[in-house]
Amino acid sequence: MQIKIEQANLGYGKRVILHDVSLTAETGRILCLLGKNGAGKTTLFKSLLGILPVIAGKVRLNGSDVSKLSRMDFARSVAYVPQARMLPFPFPVREVVLFGRTPHLSPFSVPGKDDKRIVDECLEMLHIAHLGNRTFTRLSGGEQQMVIIARALAQQPAFIIMDEPTSSLDFGNQTQVISIVNELKNQSLGIIMATHSPDQVFMCDADVAIVHDGKLRKLGYCNEVITEELLHEVYNVDVTISDVIRNTGQSRRICVPNIR
């Protein structure tokens, strides 16, 4: 399954933020968005989600024009994990995750046994079943993020769009979230994730789209696209990119800023 942006101008009203954008995300792959604050990553996400109409071009989900799909049909295929995790009411965790079943319910119906089973499976998948009866607002930031990801999973989507899912998390929780992202990819989900960390892109062995100066500056596989020169151009920071050998015997790339 694919979600595609085809030669699109993206923005607000007639104000174009990103020009002539074309990219494809596929199930079983991770696509990371890199770029400075204000570069247009959120605009791109809102356009993918159908929140912003494209100014020119198309956004297609498996060939269908997203603008022609109902919100319920779209939500059965695409889930969203926002940056903000707080909920205004102290719902139990299971109820928060159960909200993810909404696209699969008919009007005025209530969740049934199958919906509750799916919720329990999502909690188990993310290793947070022990939080099921806890109050969401009393959880740590890392626990809340896992619950929101579980809510997205409960939609049983083909794609999950994540807006900086590790923001405001400590190092341990950041690592846990990236590990979960990799597990989801291995279960044939498509992940589109905004991040400020080139290291996280390498950790996900992901495709990457570099957003810079109102356009996609580069698009492709991370080891081929992310270079020291490109990161200096985008972030005005000197870095060293190296290959390291992990204890598994495999290697992966890391990005280290050259701090004087």
Principal-axis shape equals: globular
The major beta sheet can be summarized as:
6 strands, mixed
Beta-strand portion reads: 25-35%
Considering DSSP H and I runs of 4 or more, what fraction of the residues is helical? 25-40%
Main-sheet strand order equals: 6-7-8-3-9-10
Category from helices, strands and their pairing: alpha/beta
Overall pLDDT confidence: 92
Number of strands: 12
Our count of helices gives 9
Distance between the termini: 46 Å
Please provide the ordered H/E string of secondary-structure elements: EEEHEEHEHHHEHEHEEHHEE
Which radius of gyration do the C-alpha atoms yield? 19 Å
Query: What low-confidence regions span 5 or more consecutive residues with pLDDT below 50?
Result: none
Describe this structure as you would to a colleague:
The protein is of the alpha/beta class and 260 residues long. It is 31% helix and 30% strand. The chain has helices at residues 41-48, 71-75, 93-98, 113-125, 141-154, 171-186, 198-203, 222-225, 228-235; strands at residues 2-12, 15-26, 30-34, 56-61, 64-65, 78-81, 159-163, 190-194, 207-212, 215-221, 239-245, 251-257. Strands 6-7-8-3-9-10 form a 6-stranded mixed sheet, sandwiched between helices. A hairpin with a 2-residue loop joins strand 4 (56-61) and strand 5 (64-65). 38% of the residues are buried. The model has no long low-confidence stretch (mean pLDDT 92).
